[in-house]
Amino acid sequence: MAQQVEIVRKFLGRGYNISPEALALLMEQDIGEVDSLLDSIPDKPVIELHDLEEALRRMRRRVERQTSYATGEVLEGVSIVKSPTNLGVKGSPEEFVELMRKRFQFLKSVLMSKNGIDPIPISNLLNSTSRNGDRVLVVGMVLEKRVLRDFSIRMEIDDETGSIPVVFKKGSRYWDKADKIPVDSVIAVKGTFVNGKLYADTFRIPDLNGELVRPGSASGRVALVSDIHMGSKYFNEEAFGRFVRWLNSDQARDVKYLVICGDLVDGIGVYPNQEEELKISDVYKQFQLASGFLERIPKDIKVVYIPGNHEPVRQAEPQPVVPEEYLDPLLEVRPDLIPLPNPTMIGIGDIRILVYHGRSLNAIFKHIPGLQPIRPESVVEAMKWILRLRHLAPIYGEHPIAPESEDWLLVDQIPHVLHVGHIHVYGVGEYNGVKIVNSGTFENETPYIKSLGIEVTVGKAPILNLKSMEIEVKDFSS
Ligand SMILES: [Fe+2]
Ligand SMILES: [Fe+2]
């Protein structure tokens, strides 16, 4: 009886009533499971028996999956190298401060380890009267940056102890390089200290130098796609159909993996008037459409799927796995689908692929001079900045970030491949031994994308050969 009361109280606490049949079934369950079960319950005032059966099924599937991930178990050739866990924050100002502090600490340690340097704390510099004219080195995060009337660049940088203005004179060797550095970067600056300011002569960013990854090896090929936008009027069904047919052909027999890097569906209400771009305005039906395609993908291909900003899941990065209620039709046809958070680093053999949807690319294009217009070459250039600044979202404040207890967006472990999407323009390149891939889109140009001045590249899918590490961009547009 006490258990019955406890269960009913838990349900009522979340605003649910339960039917007598559902309650009878619940009584057979372990009380410890009820909280986890509540997360899988549909949003209805009264929970009937079939709702509960459905929720139990989802919960067990989720628990099974999480256990296999947690043990680092290899999921038939795919391993989870690094993936956000225990997501959930209050979003208090203290948590944001703590997140930035951790980012600073890590990036500072990268700079120090590489240069074998010991920077001077900014407050020591400012509090000392005898330092005028000294050549010093500081490490700080760029708080603010502007170009002065004489075209010098002035940055305000701070460390844990204080902040100081840093000036890069126009015409100095490092001016061009400094011009490209966006706010929130962590830099090591060497210069002359004069009257409270640091006149810079050299500086460094964390970068990848000296950390070249050892080549890995695996067999087979992996198809990298993103931004399919099922449910949009502009989803190019023919092109995606051709891609799926190709996966079934002899030519693709050694394609053993497929990575879907977010925006599989178009979602609802993603930006103002987005519903006018929809053909299917029910997000569950968008996932049903996706399941139809997924069903036709050969069964021996392992499919990895992370959310983007169009998926019905928390928008703040890192984004958790797409909720079970939406995944249902996908898991029905592909119980072996591997849904993961955004971002996640997966492993195939000993090749590490960092999969990130890429919302930060908007800010990178906006704030780093010289990248526009958005074209395949500049997409590669923009993605290089993720590696140079060692953070997936190096510029803070342009899209929501959740201040989790760990900064999951830091590029601490260097991947062999960085796979991003979001910008709807493909790009393939390399930076210091890391393959850079943007998988473009299967959505034709939308009025919204057009308003951003982006020339989309539709129906191109980069295919990575895991043995040779060569990337072939297959064109399914016609
Ligand atoms: Fe997209
Ligand atoms: Fe996107």
Folded structure, characterized:
With 478 residues, this protein is α/β, with parallel strands linked by helices. The chain has three domains: 2-73, Helicase, Ruva Protein, domain 3 (Orthogonal Bundle), CATH 1.10.8.60; 79-86 and 212-475, Purple Acid Phosphatase, chain A, domain 2, CATH 3.60.21; 117-204, OB fold (Dihydrolipoamide Acetyltransferase, E2P) (Beta Barrel), CATH 2.40.50. Helices cover 29% and strands 23% of the residues. Helix 2 packs parallel to helix 4 and helix 9 (283-295) runs parallel beside helix 10 (324-333). The radius of gyration is 25 Å and the shape is globular. The N and C termini lie far apart (66 Å). The model has no long low-confidence stretch (mean pLDDT 91). One fe (ii) ion binds at residues 263, 308-310, 357, 422.
Describe this structure in a few short sentences.
This protein is an alpha/beta fold. The chain is globular. 29% of the residues lie in helices and 23% in strands.
* Low-pLDDT segments, ≥5 res: none
- Shape verdict: globular
Could you tell me the mean pLDDT?
A: 91
- What is the helix content? 25-40%
CATH topology of the largest domain: Purple Acid Phosphatase, chain A, domain 2
Note the main sheet.
6 strands, mixed
Number of self-contained structural domains? 3
Percent range for β-strand residues: 15-25%
Enumerate the distinct ligands.
fe (ii) ion
How many individual helices?
13
DSSP E strands, number:
19
Task: Please state the structural category.
Answer: alpha/beta
CATH class of the largest domain: Alpha Beta
Q: What's the gyration radius in Å?
A: 25 Å
Under the CATH scheme, the architecture of the largest domain is 4-Layer Sandwich
Quote the distance from N terminus to C terminus: 66 Å
